[in-house]
Amino acid sequence: MNITLWIVQILLAVVFLVSGITKAIRPSEKLRAGIPEVRPGVTRLIAVAEILGALGLILPGLTGIAPFLTPVAAAGLAIVMVGAVVTHARRKEGKSVAMNLVLLALALVIVVGRFALPL
Hints:
mainly alpha
């Protein structure tokens, strides 16, 4: 079970790190064009949350420092995914909703798994 959780953590960390960095470095005009109803500052805040969440999925387990932060980071990413599901559902973007639901489910697996089975 521990190995499975690590695999899921690494996969989610890569997805959220790439997503967060992409949002963080994209020019404001492109951010505004992608999701016009969300201000670029809010998108940048989401980017920071995704980057920190990705780091929180990996670093506590690798360093052994505050391993309780791993499920907390996963819970934070799950909250971000709830917002993403709502946003994409309002825009009637079915594929994005489905992908975000998968990411939400994987984050919740980490939350439950890591609270039940510490690092």
